[in-house]
């Protein structure tokens, strides 16, 4: 049912679809909706709210009288809790006279107009002042691959980033995570994507799916008898527990590996992170700290990674997988 209402193109029985790209609920926060019916008949509207993890927070059907206004908060519709949740929501109606605005209570008081139907291609203009974040919401039940292409004020290409977003999930990407502070961003997606640019909340670092204060840094350590020349490691993780951004992957402390790894690919939808790098001119051996990984838990739980060693070589390029004592993640803080 969710797939039918949210993912299919507009048809005759669904003449209005409006979206809130970023709601807050819980821990003293709430989002207020103001829905107006400009038609001459009473109209039903369906409210669908999804958490950043892609989980359905709830569905509620409302009745709005002819030429009337209905005001409610998400707390009234779905209840609240002591833990803050966030995500995106949609309003679907069989009337073309429905309009909606919203306000994030406890954050800002002004009302904003709801977004129109998502698109697969769009362009964003980025303000240079303030701390901004891009909200990317996948409104379909399949994985959406999204490409962000930055341009400067002259239209010159300044950077490219590709992200995978799981069904109904939402990612939040800080502007500074994009190279060279682009003033314009072209968004290309494999299916409809809801995109909005907003201010970062309370000056905190924004995470891909939800945000928690539980932050830690892990060290990727290779143990062996021969000096390490190169490595490639695949990490598997629970995407409902943690999501990564490019700036979460840092260099380690070992000589030759103390700068950011040369190759980092991540798939937040399926929970895979591949890290690879090489060095010359140094002879790190023993317990070699090759990379640091910043982790922000989305919910309190035990963090676990699956580790697959795809390659480790010595300084001459000879594979050392069979003779390597082990590869492990060690908590630094």
What is the element layout, followed by pairings?
Blueprint: H1 2-7, E1 16-25, E2 30-37, E3 43-51, E4 56-64, E5 69-73, H2 74-78, E6 85-93, E7 98-105, E8 112-113, E9 119-125, E10 132-138, E11 144-151, E12 157-165, E13 170-174, E14 184-199, E15 215-224, E16 230-236, E17 249-251, E18 263-267, E19 272-278, E20 286-296, E21 306-313, E22 326-331
Antiparallel strand pairs: 1-6, 2-5, 2-7, 3-4, 3-6, 7-8, 9-14, 10-13, 10-14, 11-12, 11-14, 15-20, 15-22, 16-19, 16-21, 17-20, 18-19
Summarize the structure.
Helix content is about 5%, strand content about 50%.
Question: How is this structure best described in words?
Answer:
Strand 18 and strand 19 (272-278) form a beta hairpin. The two termini are 44 Å apart. Strands 9, 10, 11, 12, 13 and 14 form a 6-stranded antiparallel sheet that branches. This protein has a 4-stranded antiparallel sheet with strand order 1-6-3-4. Strands 5-2-7-8 form a 4-stranded antiparallel sheet. 3% of the residues lie in helices and 51% in strands. The protein is built from 2 helices and 22 strands. It has 333 residues and is mainly beta. The protein has helices at 2-7, 74-78; strands at 16-25, 30-37, 43-51, 56-64, 69-73, 85-93, 98-105, 112-113, 119-125, 132-138, 144-151, 157-165, 170-174, 184-199, 215-224, 230-236, 249-251, 263-267, 272-278, 286-296, 306-313, 326-331. Mean pLDDT is 83; it is low at 1-14 and 202-213. The protein has 3 domains: 2-113, Hypothetical Protein Tm1070, Chain: A (Sandwich); 119-203, TM1070-like (Hypothetical Protein Tm1070, Chain: A), CATH 2.60.290; 215-331, Immunoglobulin-like (Sandwich).
């Amino acid at each position: 049912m969710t797939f039918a209402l949210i993912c299919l193109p507009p048809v005759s029985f669904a003449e209005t679809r409006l979206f809130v790209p970023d709601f807050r609920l819980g821990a003293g926060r709430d989002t207020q909706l103001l829905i107006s019916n400009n038609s001459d008949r009473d109209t039903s509207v369906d409210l669908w709210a999804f958490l950043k993890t892609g989980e359905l927070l709830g569905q509620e059907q409302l009745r709005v009288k002819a030429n009337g206004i209905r005001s409610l908060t998400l707390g009234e519709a779905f209840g609240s809790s002591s833990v803050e949740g966030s995500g995106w929501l949609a309003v679907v109606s069989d009337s073309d006279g429905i309009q909606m605005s919203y306000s994030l209570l406890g954050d800002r008081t002004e009302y904003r107009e709801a977004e129109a139907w998502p698109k697969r291609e769009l362009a964003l203009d980025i303000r240079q002042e303030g701390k901004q974040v891009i909200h990317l919401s996948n409104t379909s039940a399949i994985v959406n691959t999204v490409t962000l292409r930055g341009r400067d004020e002259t239209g010159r290409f300044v950077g490219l980033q590709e992200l995978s977003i799981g069904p109904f999930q939402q990612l939040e990407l800080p502007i500074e995570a994009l190279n060279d502070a682009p003033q314009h961003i072209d968004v290309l997606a494999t299916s409809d994507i809801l995109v909005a640019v907003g201010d970062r909340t309370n000056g905190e670092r924004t995470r891909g799916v939800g945000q928690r204060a539980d932050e830690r840094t892990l060290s990727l350590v290779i143990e062996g008898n021969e000096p390490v020349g190169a490595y490639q490691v695949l990490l598997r993780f629970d995407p409902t527990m943690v999501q990564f951004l490019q700036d979460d992957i840092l260099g380690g402390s070992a000589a030759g590996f103390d700068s950011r790894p040369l190759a980092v690919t991540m798939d937040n939808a399926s929970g895979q992170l591949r890290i690879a790098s090489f060095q010359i001119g140094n002879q790190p051996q023993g317990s070699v700290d090759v990379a640091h990984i910043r982790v922000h838990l989305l919910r309190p739980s035990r963090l676990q990674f699956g580790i697959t060693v795809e390659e480790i070589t010595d300084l001459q390029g000879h594979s050392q997988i069979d003779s390597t004592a082990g590869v492990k993640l060690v908590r630094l803080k």
